[in-house]
Amino acid sequence: MSQGRSGAEQRLVTPGMAIGPLSGMRVGSGAVTHNGEIIATKLGWVREFNGTISVDPISSPYLPRSGDLVIGTVAEVRNNLWFMDINGSFQGLLPMSLAPWKVEFGQARQHMNVGDSALARVQEVDECHNVVLTMKGIGLRRLSQGAVIEVPVNHLDRIRGDNNNNLDRMKDVSDCRIIVGENGRVWVDGSDDGIAWAREALRIAKEHGHKDNFKSIMEQHEKKLTKKGDA
Amino acid sequence: MGGYGDVQLLRDDGLRLDGRKLDESRPVTIEAGILPAADGSAMVTHGLNVAVAAVYGPMEAHPRKIQRQDRAVIDVRYNMAPFSTSDRIRPGFNRRSREISKVTAEALESVVLVERFPRSKIRVEIEILAAEAGTRCAGITAASVALADAGIPMRDMIVGVASGKIEDTVVLDLDKAEDNYGQADLPAGILPNTGEIAFLQMDGDLSPEEFDLAMEYNFKAAKEIHEIMVDALKARYDGGDS
Asked: What residues of chain A lie within 8 A of the CB of B193, using their CB?
């Protein structure tokens, strides 16, 4: 299951709640140890995997990590760099040396202006949460068409499904190009109907992706597009 | 704390004017996630008090002079709506709301893992829609649930509770008449799992024995309200509709 809710042992914990004794277990994200006990620090589902106990948070802000593929929006342009809104606490900094174009000093605005969206990768995050982005890499580019749809960061697994099943199915049915950014932004490009269908499919995946009847809900939604196309 | 002394606050049968026992709290209801635009939110009704809290962030702290290089700052704004009491409250910050914002922020800073978010700010807005004594406690409870709803990591949640003294008797959870004409008020912010105290204020005088009894009542109420807080968070998410 995409959200680690695969069995009856899944339980919801609130901050401060004792998960259990430490007894040789490792403590993962969303939990701390206190007096030999594992204490949850976030509201979420307890997950035990490979001797590590962690809490899968129910809602969580995006915390950038090096290597993340993100969809950013230019918030500010300087002579030699762009500040990108990446849906996190801090803006990401994209220097012109890491842009995919040859940029002259003072010409940054001609390549990307405020409000433009781009596919980028997190190059580096330091201990003070300064984020450096790069657009050098395969597929990293300015997104000049399509739609960017925001989804909660902790629901990305549901949207992708096991082995990207849900996502691949959405791409097939809507006949759209879909890229999921780790920062909770999804880029969808295709026909207007396809984008509208994908937008609704993302909402369904977000709300029902972890349920047993998800497949049937999605199949019903798929029929809607087929019907519309037939007519 | 008027302490007029000639106002009868306890009935002849030993109960309080509203029929509660000495160690009985007013009814509490909590709902999490009531504001779709906020990162986390909650509404608490405690007796006739209605408190709504919204949490935004963590976000970059502005102006930069308030940034801390090693931790987040918690920016709390407590406000009573003009229509929250029968006498209209003049809108805007005043001495009282400034004090409550400060003590609430300090209490929350002791439980939120602020060191995880250097240079950031977590904005907590507490709005009191209806007031009937004990708004700071309802506010801090609402803020705590809203922080959990926003996914902010915390060591524990804080429960705001209060006890006090009326007619030389220690009682739990003062209502408006008891607050106005009683002899003492002891609001506290309690961490229900660890039993620690995140904030404590006292208005009026209590003997050491009375203080101990008041705190005993506070801990008992904190446990009860904590269960309601947990239920509210679970009700929002346990159905799987998150």
From this structure: 16-18, 39
Residue B142 included in any domain = yes
CA atoms within 13 A on the CB side of B135: 25
Q: Rounded to an integer, what distance in angstroms lies between the CA atom of residue A109 and that of residue B127?
A: 42
Residue B23 domain flag: no
| Rounded Cα distance, A90 and B58, in Å | 9
Domains A12-57 and A147-230 agree in fold: no
Distance CA A38, CA A32 (A): 6
CA distance A53 to A13: 12
User: B164 near B174, Cβ under 8 Å?
Assistant: yes
Domain ranges within chain A, ordered by starting residue = 12-57, 69-143, 147-230
pLDDT in tens, B164-193: 999 999 999 999 999 999 999 999 999 999
Closest residue in A to B57 (Cα) is A89
Sheet holding A147-150, edge to edge: A147-150, A185-189, A177-180
The alpha carbon dihedral of B6, B11, B16, B21 has a sign of positive
Residue B19 falls inside a structural domain: no
CATH number at residue B133: 3.30.230.70
Asked whether A13 and A19 are in contact (CB, 8 A), the reply is: yes
- Judge residue B175's burial from the number of C-beta atoms within 10 Å of its C-beta, 0-12 exposed, 13-18 middle, 19 or more buried: buried
pTM of the model: 0.88
Residue A64, preceding peptide bond in cis (omega within 30° of 0): no
Single out the residue of B109, B135, B141 nearest to residue B122, CA to CA: B109
- Rounded CA-CA distance B65/B194 in Å is 34
pLDDT in tens, B61-104: 989 899 999 999 999 999 999 999 999 999 989 999 999 999 99
Question: Counting one residue from A and one from B, how many pairs have CB atoms under 8 Å apart?
Answer: 92
CB contact under 8 A, A30 and B153: yes
Q: A12-57 maps to which CATH number?
A: 2.40.50.100
Banded model confidence at residue B238, pLDDT cuts 50, 70, 90: low
CA-wise closest residue to A158 among A217, A230, A113 = A217
Sign of the torsion angle spanned by Cα atoms A94, A100, A104, A110: negative
Query: How far from B69 is each of A32, A136, B124, CA to CA, in Å?
Result: 23, 30, 20
Class of domain A147-230: alpha beta
Give the range of the structural domain holding residue B169, as residue numbers without chain letter: 28-237
Task: Please give the C-alpha separations between residue B119 and each of A72, A73, A89, A128, in angstroms, as whole numbers.
Answer: 21, 22, 9, 7
Q: Would you state the pLDDT for residue A8?
A: 46
Tokens of B54: 């919204």
Residues of B in contact with A41 (CB under 8 A): 113, 153-155
Q: What is the total count of domains within chain B?
A: 1
CATH of domain A69-143: 2.40.50.140
